[in-house]
Amino acid sequence: MTRIDSPGVPSGSISLTLVLIAVAYLFGSTLPAGCSANNCPSPCTCTWSKVDCSSKSQASLPDTLPRYMTDLMLNNNTLKNIPPGTFDIFDHLEHLELNDNPWHCDCNIAYMRSWMIKNENREQFKRVKCSSPEPLRGRVIMYLQPEELSAYCELFNCKYLNMSQGSLYFTVIFHGSLIMTVNISTLYLKIFNVIIGLARLKLTVP
Ligand SMILES: *[C@@H]1O[C@H](CO)[C@@H](O)[C@H](O)[C@H]1NC(C)=O
């Protein structure tokens, strides 16, 4: 019986290589979390860390965007706003396409504007423009002044005013009832004193 061992390549290193390939394969298929076909948000298409949601008539962002995406295409949809904080969890997001959406430029667009300004590659946002309100139509969002945005925040201001008015009423009623409680207690004390006085009087009178 003849055994032929290939010199210099111990069988151990071959199985180690196989194990490494298996690990790499498993790792590779789970690493681009959310970028493999099974958790690509509908109706977008995903290629590795790139998520393409462009031209899908979307009025809002998909609920679950992959955490590790580097590119997000949202151009040519019907987006009016990006909710504040939306992009904060995507640490690797660099390339973002927001062109050709009917962006509504009031104070709610301030988050998106500041995100674009802070981005290293802000050149990519030179074509992201307001669609409404009419006086800001066609303006590049990045170049708007904060005052221009706050001029279109009536709704927000109303809400805020209502809230502060509500808390004012509450404070007035609360204080009013406190004062009444104190007054009533003082009254009771006075009555109590009178009763005690009368009782004393009765006791001392033989
Ligand atoms: C924009 O999206 C619509 C569908 O929502 C599509 O029909 C149209 O061709 C797209 N336009 C461009 C310029 O990609």
What percent of residues are in strands?
5-15%
CATH superfamily of the largest domain: Ribonuclease Inhibitor
Distance between the termini: 137 Å
Chemical compounds bound to the protein: 2-acetamido-2-deoxy-beta-D-glucopyranose
Assign the CATH topology of the largest domain: Leucine-rich repeat, LRR (right-handed beta-alpha superhelix)
Strand order of the largest sheet: 1-2-3-4
The biggest sheet amounts to: 4 strands, mixed
**Count of distinct strands:** 6
Which blocks of ≥5 consecutive residues have pLDDT under 50?
28-37
Principal-axes geometry comes out as: elongated
Order of helices and strands: HEEEEEHEHH
Radius of gyration: 35 Å
Count of discrete alpha- or pi-helical segments spanning 4 or more residues: 4
Helix content: 40-55%
CATH top level of the largest domain is Alpha Beta
GO biological process, one term: blood coagulation
Subcellular location: Membrane
Transmembrane segments: 168-192
Membrane topology: Single-pass type I membrane protein
Task: Give structural notes.
The chain is an alpha/beta fold. The chain has 2 domains: 26-150, Leucine-rich repeat, LRR (right-handed beta-alpha superhelix) (Alpha-Beta Horseshoe), CATH 3.80.10; 153-206. Helices cover 41% and strands 8% of the residues. The protein has helices at 11-30, 110-118, 146-150, 154-204; strands at 45-47, 50-52, 71-73, 95-97, 103-104, 130-132. Strands 1-2-3-4 form a 4-stranded mixed β-sheet, with no helix packed on it. It has a two-stranded parallel sheet with strand order 5-6. A hairpin with a 2-residue loop joins strand 1 and strand 2. It is elongated, with a radius of gyration of 35 Å. The N and C termini lie far apart (137 Å). 17% of the residues are buried. Residues 28-37 have low confidence and may be disordered. It binds 2-acetamido-2-deoxy-beta-D-glucopyranose. 2-acetamido-2-deoxy-beta-D-glucopyranose (NAG) binds at residues 55, 57, 76. Keywords: Blood coagulation, Cell adhesion, Disulfide bond, Hemostasis, Leucine-rich repeat, Membrane, Signal, Transmembrane, Transmembrane helix. This is Glycoprotein Ib platelet subunit beta. InterPro entries: Cys-rich_flank_reg_C (IPR000483), GPIb-IX-V_Complex (IPR052313), LRR_dom_sf (IPR032675), LRRNT (IPR000372). It is found in: Membrane.
